[in-house]
Amino acid sequence: MHECYCAVFRYENHEFKEVTAPALCKPSELLAIADDNGAEFLCGNAFRIYADEIRDPAPKKLLSTDDVNAQMIVPLARKYFEENKTVDAAEASPLYVRDHVALTIEERKAEKSR
């Protein structure tokens, strides 16, 4: 659907604070969202996949995602567990950012005409 998942976080007092909730945007909108929210660092594979559509992010620092893996979340999970910031598994639910899962015929035609 030619969209990117995007969220902005700020690191303060040794934790990440959500600035903008996870959402979808067009690749061409990513840097404006970062600029509007004072982001200094960028991360994600959209910058590789849509490199021809996203302007040079300088002076922002683009962090590599080459070594990112699920193991990296363990320290955060441990911290949340120790701070009793947990929920019962029966109450846990995923966050759905995309509620529109396919383009209609009209939307596909509009995309092609751009």
UniProtKB/TrEMBL annotation:
<protein>
    <submittedName>
        <fullName>Conserved domain protein</fullName>
    </submittedName>
</protein>
<dbReference type="InterPro" id="IPR043129">
    <property type="entry name" value="ATPase_NBD"/>
</dbReference>
